[in-house]
Amino acid sequence: MTSLDKPTATDHDSEQTAAGSAHDAKAVTEAALFEAFGGLRGMVETVLPGLLFVTIFTINKDLHVSAIAALAVSLLLVAVRLIRRDTVKHAFSGVFGVAFGVVFAMMTGNAKDFYLPGMIYTLGLALAYILTTLAGVPLIGLILGPIFKENLSWRTRNPGRKKAYAKASWAWGLILLGKCAILFPLYWWADTTQLGWVLVALKIPPFLLAVYLTWVFLAKAPPPIDVFAEMEAQEKAEKERKAAAAAAQREV
């Protein structure tokens, strides 16, 4: 091996820097996904009301008791977050979903209708992921852009990142469509307990798969453009320019 073939200290430092940057990008992506989708606690808050509803209904077949228990635990989860001064967006979304389900089931008298609003929401969300991607504005980019401090800069300034958002949105849309393809036939053919237990079983695995695929796509994508840092730099440069101009005028 000649001296030209041997790795230099500079090469080694560059490799370490690149590895560190890749690790940082993955860590930032993980943190952003955790913030956007609520992490472990958000998953518990998503599953618990439906699990309580189907458990109680399986035991006593009482729609009113099951619905009230599900709504009560949703409100309790929100109260705990308020007391601890945590973010409540995930818990509130759970309350609204349960409340719609309770109202719908009470109006129709059919316990299966407790699940129908959530199923319709899932179908609408699946279509939103697919249609926004076809329109060139993938929904996952609209959700994660502000968290990454890039807003919509990925649309015109970061094509590699836009491509990753498109792949992730396709993944979310197709996974949710697959979930709907299982649940809607069960709504018509299965009884309340069968539908409820299948729905509880399908709460977390499809979600985790979609989050994992999103992480894979974004971890390989170019880093986000921090538009907030750019604006701060521009403001600082403008202030320095004005200060320099004012100093020059005083000297004259």
TrEMBL record:
UniProt cross-references to InterPro entries, sorted A to Z: UCP010219 (IPR016566)
Region named Disordered: 1-23
Superkingdom of the organism of origin: Bacteria
Pfam families reported in the protein's UniProt record: DUF3159
Annotated keywords: Membrane, Transmembrane, Transmembrane helix
Membrane-spanning parts: 42-59, 65-83, 90-107, 119-148, 169-189, 195-218
Protein name as annotated: DUF3159 domain-containing protein
